Description:
The chain is of the alpha/beta class. The protein is built from 19 helices and 27 strands.
Amino acid sequence: MQFRIKKRDGPGRIGEFTIDKKPVVTPNIFSINTKRFKAPSFADVTLSNKDDLTKSDHLFVIKNALQLFQRSKNFVEFIVEIKESIGYDKAVYLPAAGEPVNFALLTYMGIDLFDSTSAIMSARDGKLFFSDGKIDKNDLKELPCNCPSCNKFKGKPSEMKFDNILNHNYYIILNEIKNVRNAISNGRLRGLVEARVQNDPHLISILRTLDRGYNSYLEKQTPVTSSSTLFATSKETFNRPEIKRFQDRVIHRYRKPKSTKMLLLLPCSAKKPYSFSQSHKLFLEKINSSGNPSVIHEVIITSPIGLVPRELELVYPASNYDIPVTGVWDEDEKKMIRNLLKDYLKVNKYDKIISHLPEEIMSFTKDILKDAVKTCIDKTTSKKSLDNLSKNLNRIVKEYEKVKYQERKVEDILGLASYQFDEKLAEKILENSNIKGKYPYQKIISNGKQLGMIVKERGLISLTLDGAKRIKDSKKYWIEIHDDFLLKGSVFAPGLKDCDKEIRVGDEVIVLRNKELVGVGVAMMNGEEMKKANYGEAVKIRHHI
Ligand SMILES: [Zn+2]
């Protein structure tokens, strides 16, 4: 029984293994099958004897975790510790604790297999499972379910017997596990977790403990790119690892374009990327007609992402998130923006700050932006405010020497490359380069050779072999393959000799053989997993020699 991982989304993954020559997809549920409790006919995998399982090298069974599950702090610590010590290539089975409301969360923590114990226990108590919790049959005036079992009891849920409820519970657990698998496939597992835990304080405490205490465990397993929209619908969204990573890199990796002297702070827009929105088109029009647009650096202030320099607007999650707009900022959001703004201004120095922010943001950043020129009069997009923005930009840009468009374009991509790789690598990639192409599709060109390009869908720099050559000795974002490994469409884990363990899923990766560049591609697993894995696609190759 070998366990193969097909898709990753945070510590959650879709895997596959074979039991009795039958392929089983994970996450999944072992349906308990005994004389008293017959597994449903639609079960993917049944379990008659737990001892059968422990024989497998590829399955790790967490024993006696049900009691621990009640104590969120200890439970999270325990699960993360186990996951860190057993590595990536074992399927983890958590007996008894799983039920529909927590499948998403437990999968997100790294559990692959559950069982039907809770379905049986709940049926015994007369409780029906639903994806967001369980309800006593006597509390159901109507049956909100059309499964074959419930269909027989329309209007009379209280008459359901143990077997009827159990059968219903089986339908619900298998439905929810499919929801979880779909969410992983679409890169939306975290969103599903946040939706499911909403009504359950205990599950929220588990998620908060995980977010606050084990960010690095989550972050290293969270892809750097995604095509799914991040919905900021709960307090937990603010602690999502991809948001924390974005904020951290803006402060610690990213640097503002060197030739810019004026910082222009702007509000976000509902449409993403921002520059495609009506409001930002208006702002850009005023900037471009100022007489010296390249001296102005735009930074967007937004929740839950924080600060987004214009050059990073295509980067996930800034490129694709949605938050309910009320115009009211809560205390946590204010604190987050204030801290980021202070940290950002410590490392990125400007001569002048222009704030075209609405009063609701200015009200809590006044002290930090006390020297800023305020250009918003009423609404940020009103004629009055836009004229005022234009007037001030036109006046202030004159104080500075004209910054060349091409010079600034290079600095913008340098900022993006610093965010993606780091400042040193960024400088190597952009040395003596020009930027060509119509935004957002941009190419890095040097001596007539293309080094890389930015595509809107990915938001990061995709390197060519010439681009990769420039950072091949930097000891970052690299993998080394075995001498005899034939490089074609992918590098599979067995062909990999060594790699940078800081690589994340979705990262650009340099492929070396005997220290010589042989290819470049995108990471399909993180560096830590690549190092340990014995199978699976580690890097999808874009170009090779
Ligand atoms: Zn039902």
